Amino acid sequence: EAGVVQSPRYKIIEKKQPVAFWCNPISGHNTLYWYLQNLGQGPELLIRYENEEAVDDSQLPKDRFSAERLKGVDSTLKIQPAELGDSAVYLCASSLGSATDTQYFGPGTRLTVL
Amino acid sequence: SQKIEQNSEALNIQEGKTATLTCNYTNYSPAYLQWYRQDPGRGPVFLLLIRENEKEKRKERLKVTFDTTLKQSLFHITASQPADSATYLCALPYGGSQGNLIFGKGTKLSVKP
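Structure tokens for the assembled complex are given below, as produced in the milestone run.
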């Protein structure tokens, strides 16, 4: 069975440019998470979806970040405009849905903002 | 708010020895705690979950303990191998939603042959 797929794996952009990340979760997983991971830190939750509903976006900087999960499957995370401080790894994870279910992570997208 | 501290940023041990990693939390005791492994350039991989009413959990060479009095979890790898070299993260639920996890910074384990 395929794991969580993310693309692109790497992205280099100049500041003030827009960028988008795509995630395809494991088939049948209702819950999808986007995390941000800075170097030497653990992942930090940005947004959590239950099917197509964003149930927790309290940590998402809404002035420049947006996310969507149309049809409750694939998800896209967008930054517009990007800032130097947004350079990080953006991880997507999915789980079946209950609180203690294992979260399965994708490989992440490494974003570099110049 | 809940905070997690993992004992050290790096731990170097000799092959065959037991590695012990520490995870301390500062606020309320969570209903469960999880440990993940992360290799460079990859996302974290789930290893073990231990619930608050469990003192110990084992999986092959891995053992996790959970002491709600000390607010601490210990993660042990016995008979360590160079292939165990990775960063190990502890995570626990926070906030009103038990589905959200807060992660520690991780401990980078290096096992030397």
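The two ends of chain A are 37 Å apart (CA to CA). The mean pLDDT of chain A is 94. Further analysis is deferred to the final report.
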